[in-house]
Specification:
Structural class: mainly alpha
Helix content: 40-55%
Radius of gyration: 21 Å
Strand order of the largest sheet: 1-3-2
Distance between the termini: 38 Å
Strand content: 5-15%
Number of helices: 11
Largest sheet: 3 strands, antiparallel
Length: 249
Amino acid sequence: MAIYRTIQMSFWTDSKVVDDFTPEDRYFYLYLMTNPHTNLSGCYEISIRQMSNETGYKEEVIKKLIQRMQKEHRVILYDDETKELLLVNWSKFNWTKSEKFRKPLFDEIQKIKKAEYKGFLNDLYNGIDTVSIPYLYGSDTTVTVTDTVTDTVSVIKKKKEDSKTTYGENSLVKLTEAEYDKLITEYGYEDTQAAIQFLDNYIADKGYKSKSNYAAIRRWVINAVREKKGKQQQAATADDWFRQRGFEI
């Protein structure tokens, strides 16, 4: 993780910031872009309480500021369930085309829990010009705000219910937002991620094909993952038994 973040000087002279941002807005937005939880992707986990403790604002004030950043200034998204905060236009000022940068960036994106946020950043990573933003406000969110308010790129399509996002290290598993959420609900986040990675590797290694990755996970992948996990736990238990009795493993 970087120990510093770069903020353009034009932030302080941008007409939208000057005209529309209150002093609290400016302070809070700068905090969101420079706090120690930020990462390469621009989507990071942070709780209301953490923001309160680190800024000195009360939690109720933090909630109101988040609403302003989302609805009035349209520069962030925040999910109360996953506690993930997305700086929507972070990529324009912080991403590079260097392969040394893109590999860890890709890994970070795959760890994002919120399906809409993950899909949005995957689109950006893959160089898709017309991206779907996971809410109905504009997509302008930059350190220099004014230039993007009228940018045609900010006029985006609403995410379709049947559109699919790629998952896994090789980006070979495709699931809709609804399918991903159903897997999380039924099997839990940890097992779902393990099943996705298992299927992703299986497709890459074996050339496996299926009409529905969602159906494959439910039909056999999740069972294969849990069986493997059970064997590993059983083996670990056996090793502990022998170690406790002085045997070398």
